[in-house]
Design goal:
The protein is mainly α. The protein has one domain. 78% of the residues lie in helices and 0% in strands. Belongs to the PER33/POM33 family. Pfam families: TMEM33_Pom33. It comes from Thalassarche chlororhynchos.
Length: 209
């Protein structure tokens, strides 16, 4: 009886610590949830377990969720919006602005598997980082199996970023091919080229260069 009485508050305190951490960081938590949803929708598009028709809708949901995450992240980086050229120039330096544009480029286009991988992998990396923080807030030894998975993912972060950069580059000829095959718009290759020039100047992912 004494042991169960002592373990109960400890377990409740561990869970309470995670809840308090999530509530204290509401914007980060919102982005964490939207990234997990992006991973979920992207996985169901890549692996169409519910059918090809449903896979197309999950493609759009993943890009819309990524757009939401990017908008929240951009708001976090630049909280004071200004309708000025200087503010726009500053916003265009942010990776979150790049991927907000990326989501808008592909959200209404013909579903392309290659275009979902950067969204999926970035969401997975960022969600894994925040998940580790949540686990640390809960308990330093909680869910060791999940921690090991997160550590392995973090250990391969460099390779994942390189793969994302290559994927971004190879999407350029893919947009041109989509145009000639009747599956893309005339403006898409030009807008995507602008996206690539922004990625080249990225301050957070040097592998884009």
């Amino acid at each position: 009886m004494a042991d169960s009485t002592q373990n109960g508050p400890m377990q409740g305190g561990a869970g309470g610590g995670a809840v308090q951490f999530l509530m204290a960081n509401k914007l980060e938590t919102a982005m964490w949830i939207s990234r997990l949803f992006t991973v979920y929708c992207s996985a169901l598009f890549v692996l169409p377990l519910l059918g090809l028709h449903e896979a197309a809708s999950f493609y759009q949901r993943a890009l819309l969720a990524n757009a939401l995450t990017s908008a929240l992240r951009l708001h976090q980086r630049l909280p004071h919006f200004q309708l000025s050229r200087a503010f726009l120039a500053q916003a265009l330096l942010e990776d979150s602005c790049h991927y907000l544009l990326y989501s808008l480029i592909f959200v209404n286009s013909y579903p392309v598997t290659m275009s979902i991988f950067p969204v999926l992998l970035f969401s997975l990396l960022h969600a894994a980082t925040y998940t580790k923080k949540v686990l640390d807030a809960r308990s330093s030894n909680s869910l060791p199996f999940l921690r090991n998975l997160l550590e392995k993912l973090n250990a391969n972060q460099q390779n994942i970023l390189k793969f994302i950069a290559c994927n971004e580059i190879f999407l350029m000829p893919a947009t041109v091919f989509m145009l000639f095959s009747g599956q893309g718009s005339l403006l898409q290759p030009f807008i995507y080229y602008r996206f690539l020039t922004l990625r080249y100047s990225s301050r957070r992912n040097p592998y884009c260069r």
